[in-house]
Amino acid sequence: MAAVAYDVKNLVKTYPRQRAPAIDGVTFQIHEGEIFGLLGDNGAGKTTLVRQMVNLLRPDSGTVELFGRDVRDDPRHVAMLVGYMPQKSAALNRLTVGEAIYFTAHLRGLSRQAARGERDALVELWRLGDIVDKSSEQLSGGQRRLMQLAVAMAGDPPVLVLDEPTNDLDPVNRKHVWDVLRDRNTRRGTTVILITHDAVEAEKAIQRVGIVQRGRFTALGTPGELKSRVALQVHVDLSFTPGSPPRLPAGITPWKSAPDSWSLRVDPDAVPALMAALDFADITDIRLSSATLEDLYLHYVS
Ligand SMILES: Nc1ncnc2c1ncn2[C@@H]1O[C@H](COP(=O)(O)OP(=O)(O)OP(=O)(O)O)[C@@H](O)[C@H]1O
């Protein structure tokens, strides 16, 4: 069993002049070496939760321990061990991209020479060569996000806490983010905690998920565990000879249709009847897939 990286107990936070708590008695653990995803609606409390985990926000009650030590006891403990990427930040505005990466690596304990090497490696990894000498306030939203990822990773902290790391990014860079995170996790054992609204892409990387609603977890577990707790429908995508749509058993209707293809959602126990009813002479392609993390999310927040 992997060591516990984060141990969060009974965390409560109500902002001043707010009636409802933003975080309402949250208890959970994150194990060393896992990729943990926080999903939830806008305003559910995700950012409030992670800001308390990185000691940027004080809880009203409850505790957050990082590798056995309360994060409030020693701010340096968190700064050295956690690379935090906030959703929005003006903190690095005056520095160039290269300086922001270099100084962060140096502050996390690398010698000047090693920090320069780290800067060069991260500039290459995140393809920041063209903007390395620009000050971060001159960057586009996506470029800024890539710089923030490089800064969070500078000095190779064992834990990354990333608040919506793929926001503002184009599809190529979004894929690159998921690839890099998976690679860091596999090769270096980096623990990754991330907030995302991108359940479809996150599914490829996330090993355990917490779904937050009104300051509480409504679901916590591996995607497989959560799916097995709810009877989610099977997806069936089928294509057919133009002009010859298949006859479907009563009660099954396509929820998405194009001239010669349909998508169906079917209860797992209705799949055999569907297969028996289809005339495969006119079916040109058929794919069955299980429910996705997005389905799971929609199930738990609705
Ligand atoms: N500084 C603040 N003062 C007062 N209320 C706040 C403050 N920051 C957040 N809130 C409130 O706390 C609740 C949780 O906000 P939080 O930013 O944690 O949600 P979130 O899940 O991260 O949302 P999103 O997905 O939109 O980023 C919301 O109702 C929000 O309005």
From TrEMBL:
Superkingdom assignment: Bacteria
Alphabetical list of SMART domains matching this protein: AAA (SM00382)
Keyword terms: Antibiotic resistance, ATP-binding, Nucleotide-binding, Transport
Gene3D superfamilies (alphabetical): P-loop containing nucleotide triphosphate hydrolases (3.40.50.300)
First and last residue of the signal peptide: none
ABC transporter domain segment(s): 6-239
Record GO biological process: response to antibiotic
GO cellular component: plasma membrane
Cell compartments where the protein resides: Cell membrane
Membrane protein topology class: Peripheral membrane protein
InterPro entries, A to Z: AAA+_ATPase, ABC_transporter-like_ATP-bd, ABC_transporter-like_CS, ABC_transporter_ATP-binding, P-loop_NTPase
Short name of any one Pfam family annotated for the protein: ABC_tran
GO molecular function, one term: ATP hydrolysis activity
Protein name, as recorded: ABC-2 type transport system ATP-binding protein/ABC-2 type transport system permease protein
